[in-house]
Amino acid sequence: MMISRRALVQGAAAVPFLSIPGRAQRSAGILRYGLSAFPPNLQPWVSTGAAAGTVKLLIHRSLVAYDSKGQLRGELATSWSIDEKGAWVFKLRQGAVFHNGDPVTAEDVKWSIEQIGGEKSTAYMRAPFQSISAVEIPDPQTVRLVTKEPLATLPTWFANYNTFVLSRKSTANEPIGCGPFRIAAQERGTSIELAPFDKFYKPGFPKLKGIKFVVYADDNLRQAALMSGDVDIIEYVPWQSMAAIEKEPRLKLDTVEGPFMCVLFNASKPPFNDPRVRRAVAHAVKRDDIVKAAFFGRGKPLEGIPITPGTPWFDEKLAQGWNYDPARAKALLAEAGYANGIQATMLATAQYGMHKDTAEVTQQYLAAVGIQCELKLPDWPTRVNMGGRGQYDLAIHGLSGDSNDPDGLTPYLDTSQPANYSRSFGLSAPRTKELMDRGRAEFDLAKRVAIYKDMQRAALEEVPMAGLAWREQGFGMDKSVKGFSNLPGALTTSSGGTLEETSFG
Amino acid sequence: MTRWLIRRVLVSIALAWIVATIVFMALHLVPGDPAELLLSTGGVSADPTAVAELREKLGLERPLLDQYVSFLTGLTRGDLGNSLVDDYPVTSEIALRLPRTLELIFAGTIIAVLIGVPGGAYAALHRGGAFDRIASATAAFLLAVPVFVLGTLLVLLLAQTLRLMPAGGYTPIAQNATQHFTLLALPAVAIAKGLAAIVFRMTRASVLDALSRDFVRTARAKGLSPTRVLVRHVLRNALTPVLTVLGLQMGTLLGGTVLVEYVFNWPGLSTPLLRAVEARDYPMVVGIVLTISGLFLLINLIMDILYAVLDPRVRAS
Q1: Which of A447, B32, B258, B263 has its CA 20 to 30 A from that of A135?
Q2: B76 touches chain A (CB under 8 A)
Q3: Does the interface ipTM go beyond 0.85?
Q4: Quick check: helix, strand or coil at residue A42?
């Protein structure tokens, strides 16, 4: 069959029109956001990952939040301080209302705090909140928190994306928040649409007419969606795609070094119950190769405790406490009585490429000093299960602190807490723990800095975990997207909160 | 016939029960605790007391046999339970997603037939010619190339580089029909690629076979026009085996959609299945697997019945 010339011309002419309806065109002021996972659920106090956190930060508000520089700023509270008896006092903002129209009262704040710390609670902040012994309401605009021990970092708890103030009228399936957006529609597993809340307490905010979150679980497809203009912004830019986004004149890339990779130890049995062997591991790995292999150069070696550079507690010298020194690693092994080498298992997961790649590089460097590791790379749920039960000798893990304050590292450095897959198993680091406790109870900044430097010295010796690499965390977006900030360090996963200030320029 | 039919249906039901039991047991044997996973997403640690509390709430503390019995009793009532992750009924999730997976399979089959049948017939009529050789080589290539490779290439070329098509996603037909079909096009082509190659080969072979038969020679000798010979005599006879293969391949397509749906972000049954496996969401996994295997058994049952109606020898055996 011959195709007539006219048919060919007609067909070619139709191509540009065909492509237009396929494009989800940006309707005025609605931001299309490429989400990396559909939130397992949007329960405000249960931790269900960073993707859920991004959505939750927009529909709920807490006493405080992070500004674009990563500093605490007031939200439902206008000010907070310690009173003479050592209790935290929060002064509440007037005029804030919940999505159902009710005013936000001190009673709601009290109720929310008590629910999070409750006996039957499954909240992420349950354990810390149980150190709040009483929530008092001296007057309707004031909430007073009495704690069992002095807690310098308590306000940061309220900036976590699992700690929100809800209306007392909320039910388990219908939480009532007071954030700048409300859920307008959602399709399970596919998309969530947010509409602005017209009675939000900050005049002029939010600036967007709406946000449409579309889930692209596959890294490459998420990047393709940004490159082809299907979405305006994506989170978790895959490392191999960062250069391509930087090169595209229509797009921009915003990265920070926040999360990190590390080695965890099973110290419930030899040989890793000996801190010298753990230090040998920490000195044996050349970190640059991990940054190159697992993160396409998008990161930095981490040769100490993961204290965010640029914060007061960061110390250049301590940060290199576990520099690459294979001779020293071998000497430490010999000193511990393992001159003939060690056979061990190394647990990671094949489900996330960065975990597997980091494990493979680490395995090679450990072999060079005489620690032969057999890799175990199950799927993520099995990795979690085996990690929590100590079914490994060494484990590779990727983490992020709760905040840029060293106290945010408590879940990983306080090895006296119950066994968990993101903490070394059966390891005792008493000096590190004691200094973490002291740092948390100290209110004077200069003294805190000194304590945390001591803590780093103790941890370099006790090795509750060994740092490997900082990794860059990136957002890719259209250049017309203004006002969105990737928050510094560990706070990068809370960046979704700045969508309140985002607009199209 | 009735007795045969009853026996055949009973066998299918028994098979479905065995599949359900195997999936249920295998899942619970694999390590991974749904409560722990749910409370510790994204690398953060969960509070062990909270995990215990949630296990209790989800009924995971009950003995396995107990859970199995309540699963079976639910099944007899058509209730597949609720998702452990967000307490959403599994049947509602399947009711939402299954039509989209079926739509994809249906669209893929149509494309495969539209390409494979005329292509195969043309290649057979011009056996050994340029078209035949190129098309046969293409079919071999399409059979060999994995579906996710082709899918990724299509996204890279048509969405990312040429920016002609969206990278993936879904719009309900009621909301915007044009957009719906634009989004359907690439995944349907990816699904169709293997089937088109099979249909092409099958058509080519059976048309060649038919062409050498006596009745075609007779038809030609009667002086019928070549088109009439082709349509009335060659194709009508040649297409029966093609239809059989199509029926058999439909079941395979059901499995093939998993990767295609993932690559193109098509929200059919596979996304919730993958998410449920990752979260060890037992009721969701069992429900979806049961649906897919049920469909498989149903297709087989219908095929068997059709054969039996057409061919009495099947019944006798």
Answers
A1: A447
A2: no
A3: no
A4: coil
Taking the CA of residue B315 as centre, how many other CA atoms within 13 Å lie in the half-sphere pointing to its CB?
A: 13
Who among A48, A411, A423 is closest to B41 (CB)?
A: A48
B267 touches A at CB < 8 Å: yes
Which of 34-73 (B) contact A at CB < 8 A?
36-50, 53-54, 57
Enumerate the residues of chain B whose CB falls inside 8 A of the CB of residue A217: 262, 265, 271, 274
Q: Does B85 touch chain A (CB under 8 A)?
A: yes
pLDDT at A12: 46
Query: Are the beta carbons of B38 and A40 separated by less than 8 Å?
Result: yes
Other CB atoms within 10 Å distance of the CB of residue A446:
9
| Residue keyed to tokens 């075609």 | B216
C-alpha A189/C-alpha B125 separation (Å) is: 49
Interface test with B, best of A47, A191, A232, A234 (most B CBs within 10 A): A47
The CA distance from A423 to the nearest CA of chain B, in Å, is 8
Distances (CA, A) of B185 to A480, B251, B262, B265: 30, 21, 15, 13
Q: What does the pLDDT read at residue A4?
A: 52
Residues of A in contact with B165 (CB under 8 A): 19, 22
Instruction: Give backbone dihedrals phi and psi of B94, rounded to 5 degrees, phi first.
Output: -65, -40
Q: β-pairing, A342-347 with A371-376? A: parallel
**How many angstroms separate the CA atoms of B285 and B265, rounded?**
19
Decide: B207 and B238 in contact? Cβ < 8 Å: yes
Tell me the CB-side half-sphere exposure of residue A402, using CA atoms within 13 A: 25
The nearest CA of chain A is from the CA of B7 a distance in Å of 40
The pLDDT value recorded for residue B32 is 85
What is the pTM for the complete model shown? 0.85
Cross-chain CB nearest to A380 (options B46, B272, B278): B278
Mean pLDDT by 10 residues, chain A (505 residues): 47 44 61 92 88 94 94 96 94 95 96 94 90 95 95 94 96 93 90 96 94 90 91 95 94 94 96 97 97 95 94 94 97 96 96 94 97 95 91 94 90 88 94 96 94 97 97 96 94 94 91
Cα A104 to Cα A88: distance, rounded to the nearest angstrom: 19
Instruction: For residue range B248-302, list pLDDT tens digits in order.
Output: 787 778 777 888 888 888 889 988 898 898 889 999 999 998 888 888 888 778 8
**CA A157-A158-A159 angle, 5° bins:** 90
Q: Which residue of B has its CA nearest to A408?
A: B44
Name, in order, each residue with C-beta under 8 angstroms of A68's C-beta and a sequence gap of 6 or more: A485, A487, A498, A501
